[in-house]
């Protein structure tokens, strides 16, 4: 199946015929998908169905073997590595399950890093405002070891958003957090869409997290296998259960009900 917008509708992300092979494995097997600007899309599916590969190709972190990726109207295929790096820096944000903060830098310095790497000095109050936006007012001078896991992920999100990317991609951004903290982070991500018109695309295994999205798309064996608009945790869980091959066990990844927080300090 495909999930595309009319050609005239503004798409923050447009994927056409995406194929990505790893040896004999077709991690993506012909995916057509549009993500409308200003929306929150969750990507779900069984373990190994191609979710991370989809995100990495859409974000320009990996190159598909065939097909086309457009982000905010720019086609990624054919871009030189340098142009792709600049596009990722300026137009694409990415957060991972691990927070990847630099331990010796303060929260504010971590958030400012993408601007500094781009040769730009942050405007007065810009970093403080970015941290306040993710609920970390007053934490500017804390280093990662002095922050909780949820706070570290908020710093990582502020860092990913500081350059005002066209799309923020998240690969299980709450996967290392306990359920309550993960829910708070998902609520904060939702508010970024509602209040600022941000565009989010997030892989998650958690039906409760996916229920915050406007739309959930499901992958199976590298192909789109369905979608739910205006999802609830129940409709998401039921769809996932129906997609799981008969006899398959519970997904080894976190399901949101059995999450264990990352050990030790969080970052
Ligand atoms: N670098 C790689 N080398 C070889 N095979 C890979 C590589 N990356 C992904 N794959 C394979 O491609 C398929 C899709 O992997 P991917 O990580 O995208 O799935 P996923 O849905 O994100 O899985 P999970 O939910 O377990 O994280 C899997 O069969 C995986 O083993």
From TrEMBL:
CDD domains: ABC_MJ0796_LolCDE_FtsE. Residues 13-246 form the ABC transporter domain. The keyword Nucleotide-binding applies. GO terms for molecular function: ATP binding. Keywords: ATP-binding, Nucleotide-binding, Transport. Pfam families: ABC_tran (PF00005). SUPFAM superfamilies: P-loop containing nucleoside triphosphate hydrolases (SSF52540). This is ABC transporter ATP-binding protein. It comes from Streptomyces roseolus.
